[in-house]
Design goal:
The protein is an alpha/beta fold and 130 residues long. It is 45% helix and 19% strand. Helix 2 packs parallel to helix 3.
Length: 130
């Protein structure tokens, strides 16, 4: 585990319970602390209460999808409503160039294709917190 995380958590945002369990299991195995949210609205509530080191964001969710949630988070950072920047990593089954560009255009910093491999997840988290 990287010591740059200190006491900060990683936020997993995914509407699928199984995906949440898989991702949280991977993070737990590597010693990371985490919290979960089931949609974009829940994620926005949580980031107003807690400063997260990284957000792992599913793109396609009901209510408020990952693209719109990311745009709102970036706006909150720009306006000073959030006084810190959080890297957002997209998790998506759609990995065509156009899909990746959509993630980046929404303000996401990186992406991981599903199914997620633990080595890839850890490498991308480390890249954004070092």
């Amino acid at each position: 585990m990287n010591h740059n995380l200190k006491n900060k958590k990683i936020l997993i945002v995914d509407d699928d319970d199984i995906n949440q369990m898989v991702l949280s299991g991977m993070l737990k195995k590597k010693g990371y602390q985490y919290d979960t949210a089931s949609n974009g609205y829940e994620a926005l509530e949580k980031i107003n209460q807690t400063e997260f080191a990284v957000i792992i964001m599913d793109c396609l969710m009901p209510e408020l999808n990952g693209f719109e949630a990311t745009r709102r988070i970036r706006k909150m950072e720009q306006t000073g409503e959030l006084n810190y920047f959080t890297p957002i990593i997209a998790v998506t089954a759609k990995t065509k160039k156009v899909d990746i560009e959509r993630c980046l255009k929404a303000g996401m910093d990186d992406f991981i294709g599903k199914p997620v491999q633990i080595e890839t997840l850890v490498a991308i988290i480390q890249k954004h917190i070092s």
